[in-house]
Write a structure and sequence with these properties.
Blueprint: H1 10-23, E1 28-34, H2 35-43, H3 46-49, E2 54-61, H4 63-66, H5 69-79, E3 84-88, H6 102-107, E4 111-114, H7 118-127, E5 132-139, H8 144-157, E6 162-169, H9 171-179, E7 188-192, H10 193-199, H11 205-211, E8 215-218, H12 222-238, E9 243-245, H13 257-266, E10 267-274, E11 278-287, H14 296-299, H15 315-319, H16 351-357, H17 360-370
Parallel strand pairs: 1-2, 1-7, 3-4, 3-5, 5-6, 7-8, 8-9
Antiparallel strand pairs: 6-11, 10-11
Helix pairs in contact: 1-12, 8-13
Length: 371
């Protein structure tokens, strides 16, 4: 497929790997932020063919994975109420709450529906004026414009039976939280290309300067990731620390200004708890008071619901780059895609799901046996 095959070309990949092996002289730990990048890395075996001096660790760039447990419980509590149609992207339905997930709520009679956009949820609200239609607004900056526009459109149409349960999280504060942690291992970042398509990369520049780490905005195909690694390693080896853009076909420094404007109009920065990590200041979007009528947390009074993580799940260590999924004692045992303990085993972008799907544990065990 034109404009795609060239970013999966094995010949180009081998050429980059040869150059990469020449460039790298020291051991480096590099984190890819995005779960989509993680899956591409594991699926294509990139972590198996790069020089041994490089270690790739998997960051908290999966919005499903970092949605806190209590928000899942809030979603279930809302969905189980009378006269509610609860709508969500499909990957949220199997994320475990404290005692159940949204699929289980649906099997018990709750009207939980999978949609492919918030505008589809708006259509459901128009067609069901006697029902409260709630959309589960989860995601990074990438999905925020569409979710903000749905609220803006609902107000313009005078729809009073539509609202959103907002659980947006922001990438730069999470990056900074990891870098400022006393157990930080990250020496360079591959930044998420789709987030930067919306937000640009200007907000990453102070982080690169403050913590002296290179940040390379990177795409999702194998060649994208290898090029992003090359650019990061060249900076590390030369002692530089700046923001560079590998994903030039999609990302500009300023990003998408109209998308940013609709986000600012409807949402405001708030402290947000990240599943397995804890609360990070100013790391999420909440619905502004001017749009409080469209805030499901307020409309259904579920903000006081609290929850505790499973002690068996080490998703926090995985999302902070401290451990790999297969190092979890529950991986592939108590925690399976059919019966997940944590969101990283559920999500299509979760690191645990990637390791399980592509049998990375077995590959690494075989590699060690050959040493």
């Amino acid at each position: 497929m034109k404009y795609l095959d060239e970013f999966r070309d094995p010949k180009v990949a081998r050429e980059i790997l040869v150059e990469l092996k020449k460039v790298v002289k020291q051991p480096w730990v590099i984190m890819e932020i995005c779960g989509g990048q993680t899956h591409s890395i594991i699926k294509n075996g990139i972590d198996q063919v790069i020089p041994g001096e490089l270690e790739l660790v998997h960051g908290p760039g999966c919005p499903v994975c970092v949605t806190p447990l209590e928000i899942i419980d809030q979603a279930i509590a809302i969905a189980e109420q009378q006269n509610v149609i609860f709508t969500s992207f499909g990957d949220m339905l199997r994320v475990p709450g404290s005692h159940k997930d949204l699929f289980m709520a649906r099997s018990a009679g709750a009207d939980v529906r999978t949609v492919f956009s918030p505008l589809e949820a708006l259509k459901i609200a128009r067609g069901n004026p006697d029902k409260e239609v709630v959309f589960f607004a989860v995601g990074f900056e990438t999905t925020a414009p569409g979710n903000a526009m749905a609220i803006h459109q609902a107000r313009a149409e005078g729809l009073t039976n539509f609202c959103e349960l907002a659980s947006h999280v922001l990438v730069p504060p999470a990056m900074e939280a990891l870098l400022s942690s006393p157990d930080n291992r990250v020496q360079g970042y591959l930044a998420a290309g789709h987030v930067c398509t919306i937000m640009g990369w200007e907000e990453y520049e102070p982080i690169a300067a403050k913590y002296q780490v290179p940040i390379v905005v990177t795409g999702f195909e194998p060649i994208d990731i290898l090029e992003g690694l090359m650019m990061t390693v060249k900076q590390l080896e030369s002692g530089r620390h700046m923001v560079e853009n590998q994903y030039v076909r999609s990302v500009s420094r300023d990003g998408n200004r109209p998308a940013q404007e609709i986000i600012k109009k409807v949402f405001e920065p708030v402290a947000r708890k990240w599943r397995g990590i804890g609360e990070i200041p100013v790391s999420g979007y909440g619905i502004r008071d001017e749009y409080a009528d469209f805030d499901a947390e307020k409309k259904f009074a579920v903000g006081d619901i609290k929850a505790e993580e499973s002690p068996l799940c080490i998703s926090g260590d995985v999302l902070r780059g401290q451990k790999k999924p297969h190092e979890c004692p529950a991986f592939g045992k108590e925690c399976l895609p059919e019966h997940p303990l944590g969101a990283p085993m559920v999500s299509s972008e979760g690191a645990c799901a990637a390791y399980y799907r592509f049998n990375r544990k077995s590959l690494e065990q075989r590699a060690k046996s050959r040493e």
